[in-house]
Design brief:
487 residues, mainly beta, Methylamine Dehydrogenase, Chain H, 6-stranded antiparallel sheet, 5-stranded antiparallel sheet, 33 strands, 38% strand
């Protein structure tokens, strides 16, 4: 059968007829619609694939960039002071952003393992001094804030003191006191423009102040002031040519009025640094006061180090010397040039007249060693708040330049009192890789603070756990730890 070919529509029109109805037209329309849909879907799919490929190849072009963390990095010279210094800083809930990694505490357990991480309680502030300013930083993190302290000048021999009422006592162009949160600085005593405050002490109850003033030239008259916190008076004078050149070391502890009536003095040997040899007692109840009474000889370069809290137990060294000065400036010059203890001893102060009791040896001295690197030195000793534990840093120096220091922290347990005092054997707490390690005040009964190579830390002496508090990026000295519910 020969297939028939239908007439074209044009041919039918030429014949004058109506165009036939093509019964297959609806089928062709359906087929064309499906093809269009498939083409459209294919096009959409290709577009989706193309967009997805762009996102995969360069996601950063489709995402916002994170802010530069370096803009939030505090430095030792970039901390701004509050305009008035009258408001407590608000602890931040998130950690401080820094351009550098969070510092790892440079302390290790006895088996040379890193210590675990310590979580500090909130609601506390750490006060520290640095470059003629005093700062406060929250234990919860955040940026340090400068405390308004007009007239303040950093002096290695004169530490600011936190009073029992939570006020800050400091020296510079005079003696000042301020409330660290909402007070106004007030000058207690003025000094001459050519004078320097060389020592500062406060009785345990915070009622009585004592300090010394010397001529900046080192030649002239040394003035010793003592009396009520609000109105100390001149009580003793001597010339710088007639040493011992007295400097206030501490008040002798006592109950009631006896707690602020006796001063303990040391000889500065005409140095403005933290030099204190020998020990003398001065009775403030007499008018005029008598010349100080000697309790400890200074000829053998021995001197007081620290008084135990709420007692008259004295930590001292009977053999002091100098360590090699690091040439890489890892230790500030005013600290590197100090005399350090080569042994540690304890003695009670008491009796009438006052005298030192028989002593207990905590750490024996070293003598006649062949190399300076063989000597070990003790620094920044610290009694626990209950007086039952002694903590100290021990370091030795590398035998060659830059004479970097190698440090460790030891603890000694104490029990009993008076003639029944029992002194334990020093036990290693942690070793350290820090080039300069200094102990600071206690955070609480078992957590202490310390400085190490441009960062302040806290460490639990029970668990050996530690954590950074703030990066100072330069030497800083911790003054105190303050809890909001403690003042």
């Amino acid at each position: 059968m020969v297939p028939q070919v239908s007439d074209l529509p044009e041919q039918k029109q030429e014949q004058g007829g109506q165009p036939p109805v093509d019964q297959s037209l609806p089928d062709r329309q359906v087929r064309l619609s499906k093809a269009g849909i498939v083409s459209l879907l294919t096009l959409i799919g290709m577009l989706l694939i193309l967009i997805t490929g762009i996102l995969i190849l360069d996601p950063s072009e489709m995402m916002p960039q994170a802010p530069q963390a370096s803009l939030l990095t505090p430095t030792s010279t970039g901390v701004s002071a509050s305009p008035t210094g009258t408001h407590a800083p608000t602890p931040t809930a998130t950690p401080q952003l820094t351009a550098s990694p969070t510092p790892v505490p440079p302390v290790f357990t006895a088996n040379e393992q890193p210590v675990s991480s310590l979580q500090l309680p909130s609601g506390h502030f750490v006060l520290y001094e640095q470059q003629n300013s005093i700062y406060m930083v929250s234990s919860s993190g955040g940026l340090p804030q400068a405390i308004t302290t007009p007239g303040y000048l950093y002096n290695q021999a004169v530490r600011p003191i936190l009073t029992p009422e939570g006020q800050l006592l400091y020296a510079g162009d005079g003696i000042w006191i301020t409330d660290i949160f909402d007070g106004t600085p007030r000058q207690i005593a003025q000094i001459g423009s050519n004078q320097v405050v060389t020592s500062l002490a406060l009785s345990a109850d915070g009622s009585t102040l004592a300090y010394t003033v010397e001529p900046a030239s080192g030649k002239g008259t040394i003035d010793l002031y003592a009396g009520p916190l609000s109105s100390p008076a001149l009580v003793y004078q001597q010339t710088t040519n007639d040493c011992p050149c007295f400097r206030v070391f501490s008040f002798l502890y006592g109950q009631g009025k006896k707690g602020d009536s006796t001063l303990l003095l040391a000889d500065s040997q005409n140095s403005f640094n933290g030099v204190q040899y020998g020990l003398w007692a001065m009775d403030l109840t007499k008018t005029p006061v008598d010349a100080p009474t000697q309790l400890m000889d200074e000829d053998s370069l021995q001197g007081p180090l620290l008084m135990a809290p709420y007692s008259n137990l004295l930590l001292y060294s009977s053999s002091e010397g100098t360590a090699p000065v690091p040439t890489d400036e890892s230790v500030p010059s005013d600290i590197a040039s100090l005399s350090y203890a080569n042994n540690l001893q304890l003695a009670s102060i008491g009796g009438n007249p006052l005298s030192l009791s028989s002593s207990w040896i905590v750490l024996p001295e070293q003598a006649n060693l062949s190399s300076p690197a063989d000597y070990r030195w003790e620094t920044t000793p610290l009694f626990s708040p209950d007086g039952h534990t002694l903590i100290y840093v021990e370091f030795s120096s590398e035998p060659q330049a830059p004479y970097d220091r190698i440090s460790a922290v030891y603890e000694v347990q104490l029990s009993g009192t008076g003639s029944h005092l029992r002194v334990g054997i020093p036990q290693l707490l942690v070793t350290s890789t820090a080039r300069l390690l200094e102990l600071g005040p206690w955070f609480n009964s078992h957590v202490l603070t310390f400085y190490a190579d441009g960062t302040l830390y806290a460490m639990d002496i029970r668990s050996r756990a530690a954590t950074p508090i703030v990066q100072t990026n330069a030497y800083a000295r911790i003054i105190a730890v303050v809890g909001l519910n403690e003042i």
